[in-house]
Design brief:
heterodimer; A: alpha/beta; Rossmann fold; two-stranded antiparallel sheet; 13 strands; 31% strand; B: 310 residues; alpha/beta; 7-stranded parallel β-sheet; 5-stranded parallel β-sheet; 8 helices; globular; binds flavin-adenine dinucleotide; binds adenosine monophosphate
């Protein structure tokens, strides 16, 4: 069984992003970029399925500019076998990425497409569900446990009231939640090995897919700031403030 | 054109998130219908028909819709969407699961987590864990939207007189199968609807301390209990307690953060609360930057003292 994993290059989760003064976006100059944390979890899960003898090959794909090759090399160092870069400098929105993933799935014929539930830059939480819809595949979003057996994926999902278990007929899409696993660190020997693994660059322009953005960002602004609060000396002072000033208890 | 709101429910009761979504829908269009997809969900449809501002309720029932799996639910919405310009669902686990599927089938973009309707095609939504607010305009004729409930006041649950119209379900159970559900049972208010939330972090140290230290405070205040991701990861409480960028987004009247450092991902889920209290032994913890009232001290002393003083 082949598994395809989608990985996105995003601003590192530790970076405090700043809105540009001209409101055209956030400042990305000289900002540390990393793999989307949910996608690290997706690769880890795929690699574990391979180590368990359930998957035979793990292919990673990223769509975006040439710098995504770094992200793909990280995925190869974690244990993916080969990588595909769908290369474009154009802005890609979730629907466009889903169309690219559909095209790649049709060519590669994986049994599972595993990806993050949400990219921490656009916070869209859409691409996996969209890819599943376009492919006509079932989906299990927000996975915290994945078992594959007998042509089915059984997934425990994190839902609002607790957990839900569903079974999907393969091929299927699974999107990861934070508790699915704890991704390993890539070791130096594996980072060296990853440099020699195949990385196939395919221009998006040659795929015949309409990736034009549907959403136009008119402006990006700072969220309203909370006015600075105070420190209270003790519990009695806190209770007095909550009762008399804030009037919330 | 009209707007369609996808009701959040469990076949028995209509969830409050639907009310905030109706308010967002009314900002898009004066004609708002509600769709209830489920099984034996007549009571839900009747409740939805009472919401002020709702024109009519469409009820689609089938046994294969009972568990609201994404594939068959999306099928129902896609077909009905033909008659609407805006299709909105609350940004709950269910809404997020289904709406991108609907959008892709309709070949339109989806707008996630809107917090404001600027005009019928322009919306505000947070990005980068709420570090920035984007104003986005869609070029698509049909707008498929999930609504961040904390951005909109709830519509009045009563006062409306919508009609309930039953429609036949589209065939197709899909390729997923429901196996089981394990819901957390609690007598406390629901996290996303609570007026007061008491939230615990890694500082609590154990699940036992959550019970021993936080629960009495929550009991006193009739509060819901929340948690940071670190607390959930450490197994102190289950995942449905998590507040934050990738957990629940809450905005209660009062949010009391106990032993939580205030990582940006946590703040993303609670910084719109009306009043924030932080109890932390580290005077430099970032949570104090958003707290209206900060108390520097050991939570194991401060919280029991607070319980006594209330
Ligand atoms: C992709 C991604 C998504 C994430 N999503 C979320 C999310 O949705 N929600 C979320 O919460 N986090 C999320 N996180 C994790 C987040 O980055 C932080 O790691 C987490 O919020 C920290 O939790 P904490 O404040 O409980 O723990 P810590 O940061 O360890 O803080 C514990 C605090 O307790 C205090 N303390 C300890 N003992 C005591 C005592 N006896 N008395 C008083 N104070 C005490 C300490 O001073 C400290 O400030 C996410 C991370 C990533 C990478
Ligand atoms: N440009 C991209 N290249 C590869 N995968 C992507 C890309 N954009 C999004 N994804 C995948 O889709 C998931 C959800 O992203 P989003 O829908 O943008 O929140 C991410 O965690 C990735 O797995």
């Amino acid at each position: 069984m082949k598994i395809l994993v989608a990985v996105k290059r995003v601003v590192d989760f530790n970076v405090k992003v700043r809105v540009k003064a001209d409101q055209s976006g956030v400042d990305l100059a000289n900002v540390k970029m990393s793999m989307n944390p949910f996608d690290e979890i997706a690769i880890e899960e795929a690699v574990r399925l391979k180590e368990a003898g359930i998957a035979t090959e793990v292919v990673v794909i990223s769509a975006g500019p040439t710098q995504c090759q770094e992200t793909l090399r990280t995925a190869l160092a974690i244990g993916a076998d080969r990588a595909i870069l769908a290369e474009t400098d154009a802005e890609l929105q979730p629907l466009a990425v889903a169309k690219i993933l559909k095209a790649v799935c049709e060519k590669e014929q994986p049994q599972l497409l595993i990806m993050g539930k949400q990219a921490i830059d656009d916070d869209s939480n859409q691409t996996g569900q969209m890819a599943a819809a376009l492919l006509g595949w079932p989906q299990a979003t927000f996975a915290s446990k994945l078992t594959v057996a007998n042509g089915e994926a059984t997934v425990i999902r994190e839902v609002d009231g607790g957990l839900e278990t569903i079974a999907l007929t393969l091929p299927a899409v699974v999107t990861t939640d934070l508790r699915l696993n704890e991704p390993r660190y890539a070791t130096l020997p594996n980072i060296m090995k990853a440099k020699k693994k195949p990385l196939d660059v395919q221009p998006v322009a040659a795929m015949g897919i309409d990736v034009a953005p549907r959403l136009k960002t008119l402006k990006v602004t700072e969220p309203p700031k909370r006015s600075g609060g105070i420190k209270v000396a003790d519990v009695a002072a806190l209770v007095a403030k909550l009762k008399n000033e804030a009037k919330v208890i | 054109m009209t707007a369609l709101v996808i009701a959040e429910h469990d076949n028995q009761s209509l969830k409050a998130a639907t009310l905030n979504t109706v308010t967002a829908a009314l900002a898009c269009s004066s004609e708002v219908d509600v769709l209830v997809v489920g099984n034996a969900a007549e009571a839900v449809a009747q409740a939805a028909a009472q919401i002020t501002g709702v024109r009519k309720v469409i009820l689609v029932e089938a046994d294969f819709l009972a568990d609201q799996l994404s594939e068959p639910v999306a099928e129902q919405i896609v077909v009905l969407a033909a008659a609407y310009e805006h299709v909105l669902a609350p940004s709950t686990a269910h809404g997020k699961n289904v709406m991108p599927r609907v959008a892709a089938k309709l070949d339109v973009a989806q707008l996630t987590d809107i917090i404001k309707v600027v005009s019928t095609d322009t919306f505000e939504r947070p990005i980068y864990a709420g570090s920035a607010i984007a104003t986005v305009q869609t070029a698509d004729a049909k707008k498929v939207i999930t609504v961040r409930t904390t951005g909109f006041n709830p519509a009045a649950a009563t006062g409306g007189a919508g009609a309930v119209e039953k429609q036949a379900a589209q065939a197709g159970a899909g390729k997923s199968r429901f196996v089981s559900r394990e819901l957390t049972k609690s007598d406390r208010p629901e996290l996303t609807a609570a007026k007061i939330i008491v939230s615990g972090g890694r500082g609590l140290g154990s699940g036992e301390n959550f019970k021993k230290v936080l629960e009495p405070l929550a009991d006193k205040l009739n509060a819901a209990i929340g948690a940071s991701r670190a607390a959930v990861d450490a197994g102190f409480v289950t995942n449905d307690y998590q507040v934050g960028q990738t957990g629940k987004i809450v905005a209660p009247q009062l949010y009391i953060a106990v032993g939580i450092s205030g990582a940006i991902q946590h703040l993303a889920g609670m910084k719109d609360s009306k009043v924030i209290v932080a109890i932390n032994k580290d005077p430099d913890a970032p949570i104090f930057e958003v707290a209206d009232y900060g108390l520097v001290g050991d939570l194991f002393e401060a919280v029991p003292e607070l319980v006594k003083a209330l």
